[in-house]
Specification:
The complex is a heterodimer. Chain A is mostly helical. Chain A is elongated. Chain A is built from eight helices and no strands. In chain A, helix 1 (about 5-25) packs parallel to helix 3 (about 55-70) and helix 2 crosses helix 3 (about 55-70). Chain A has two domains: about 5-70, Rna Polymerase Sigma Factor, Chain: A (Orthogonal Bundle), CATH 1.10.1740.10; about 80-155, Winged helix-like DNA-binding domain superfamily/Winged helix DNA-binding domain (Arc Repressor Mutant, subunit A, Orthogonal Bundle). By secondary structure, chain B is mostly helical. Chain B has three domains: about 20-75, no CATH class; about 100-130 and about 245-295, no CATH class; about 135-245, no CATH class. Chain B has twelve helices and three strands, in the order H-H-H-H-H-H-H-H-H-H-H-H-E-E-E. Chain B has helices at about 5, 30-45, 50-60, 65-70, 95-125, 150-165, 165-175, 185, 190-195, 200-205, 230-240, 250-265, and strands at about 270-275, 280-290, 295. A three-stranded antiparallel sheet of chain B has the order 1-2-3, covered by helices on one side. In chain B, strand 2 and strand 3 (about 295) form a beta hairpin. In chain B, helix 2 (about 30-45) crosses helix 4 (about 65-70), helix 3 (about 50-60) packs across helix 4 (about 65-70) and helix 5 runs antiparallel to helix 12 (about 250-265). Chain B is elongated, with a radius of gyration of 57 Å. The chains are: A mainly alpha, B mainly alpha. The interface between A and B is medium-sized, with 40 and 30 residues.
Chain lengths: ~160, ~300
């Protein structure tokens, strides 16, 4: 990858990787740090990576870095221990997308990441498996379970009715 | 010896499970959780042929389940407008662009230095001298009122006026302009007649044709002493300003300051050095940077740098 291609990778994928990381960990500063580290890593091995593979490489690297950060800081909220007050705030918001993002925060980290990669970036299961280091079957399972959890969450908070 | 004797192994007997049908799972046997997962997979178009057949069988039995499964299709996240602000900070410049930029700046700086040196060299010969103080002529403010009135004509005019005007007017005129007041000479138009340049005016209308004019009271401007008049004071000060001493321009100092300025702005490491001989005379001037190094000898008869 040339310097020009690297700059293209910054301009083209920077926001994508950022929003994936930010929506996964919900911390702007940490997300920015992770992206910074990821691009520094990319710059160090810029000659070894092809531009076509840069996006997947960035997502993989950012995901791994994010997992490290999450492991260090075990402040993840499980879906069972959500705070009702924030949900009721979201309930007033008629935008389903907004509510879904609130619900997403309550999903386990892996489910959240695979759903984000699937919905935000439109990756195939195989590509998601490659980024996250899971098998394709695991990715499918996480996505389906995540969808069911999101739906149950919306029903539980009366945003959706069965 | 054959292999059967050396490696004995078991051969399966003809045992069979008679009720195969009990192992099959019908669509109706699915739990709610299993159906949810199946519906989520169906909404993702990720079901295999077998799974698809199973869920379609369920939909055929219960249409509500199809609607329920269809609701999973609405559970799609749309990317929010999350923008990374530090994006531009990670952009890199190409090595070629960096080199071009560096060479350009150094070449520009070198050109500027040499231009400065060559421009200021001839000036170094000449001694800069400020212009000599200009002595402005002393400004004298002389009031018209102090000029002596022309006695003959004014007297004549007064006689004419007194003969042609009523006694009331005359009295008023005398009250306003007493003969001993200095300012009367200024306001009297007859004063002009007294000057040598205006004989033509006098020869125009005869004194009989003259009519009395109405006078406006004009108070004489008080004399301002020269020390209190700021204009005169300013001019006087300027005229008395002391001339500065003759001061030669040191081109080397100017060029060094210029380089120092460029170094501080661009962060480069350019330097301009003097080379002196044992006597302390200037022999050469050298310019050095990370990319360029020039040494220019100085002629003995050249002006001092």
């Amino acid at each position: 990858m040339t310097v020009k291609e690297y700059n293209n990778a910054v301009r083209e994928f920077g926001d994508h990787v950022y929003r994936f990381v930010y929506r996964s960990i919900k911390d702007r500063h940490r997300a920015a740090d992770i992206i910074q580290d990821t691009y520094e890593k990319l710059w160090l091995c810029v000659t070894e990576i092809e531009y076509e593979a840069a996006k997947a490489w960035l997502f993989t690297s950012a995901y791994n870095r994010m997992i490290d950060v999450i492991r260090k800081d075990s402040r993840l909220i499980s879906i069972e221990s959500y705070d009702d007050t924030s949900i009721f705030a979201a309930e007033n918001d008629s935008d389903l997308n907004e509510v879904l993002h609130h619900a997403l925060e309550r999903l386990p980290g892996v489910q959240r990441s695979v759903i984000l990669l699937r919905d935000y970036e439109g990756y195939q299961y195989r590509e998601i498996a490659s980024i996250t280091g899971l098998t394709e079957h695991q990715v499918k399972t996480y996505i389906f379970r995540g969808r069911v959890a999101l739906r149950n969450f919306l029903v539980k908070t009366s945003v959706w009715h069965e | 010896m054959n292999d059967d004797i050396i490696y004995p192994h078991l051969t399966p007997l003809n045992d069979r499970y008679l009720s195969h049908g009990e192992l099959y799972r019908s669509a109706g046997d699915l739990t709610a959780e299993q159906f949810d997962l199946l519906a989520a997979a169906w909404a993702e178009n990720a079901l295999s042929d077998e799974g698809l057949a199973e869920i379609e069988a369920l939909f055929a039995i219960d249409k509500l389940k199809e609607i329920y499964a269809g609701s999973f299709r609405q559970l799609r996240l749309i990317p929010c407008n999350d923008r990374w602000e530090g994006l531009n900070g990670l952009l890199q410049t190409t090595p070629a662009a960096r080199t071009i930029r560096r060479v350009f700046f150094i070449a520009l700086a070198s050109a500027a230095i040499f231009f400065t040196l060559f421009t200021l060299k001839p000036l170094a010969k000449k001694q800069v001298t400020l212009t000599a103080p200009v002595s402005l002529p002393e400004v004298a403010v002389i009031s018209d009122a102090r000029e002596p009135a022309a006695p003959d004509i004014s007297n004549k005019m007064e006689e004419t006026i007194s003969s042609s005007t009523s006694p009331g007017v005359k009295k008023k005129s005398q009250e306003l302009y007493p003969p001993d007041r200095e300012s009367t000479a200024r306001i009297s138009p007859v004063t002009m007649i007294a000057s040598a340049e205006t004989p033509v005016l006098i020869s125009g209308p005869t004194s009989r044709e003259l009519r009395p004019v109405s006078y406006n009271v004009i108070t004489a401007t008080p004399d301002i002493p020269n020390d209190e008049n700021w204009i005169i004071r300013g001019i006087s000060r300027l005229s008395r300003a002391p001339a500065k001493e003759k001061k030669p321009i040191d081109a080397f100092v100017v060029a060094s300051a210029f380089i120092k300025g460029i170094n501080s702005v661009l962060g480069s490491e350019m330097a301009l050095d003097k080379t002196l001989n044992k006597k302390g005379d200037l022999v050469a001037v050298s310019f050095s940077s990370s990319l360029l190094s020039i040494k220019a000898p100085v002629k003995k008869n050249s002006p001092r740098l």
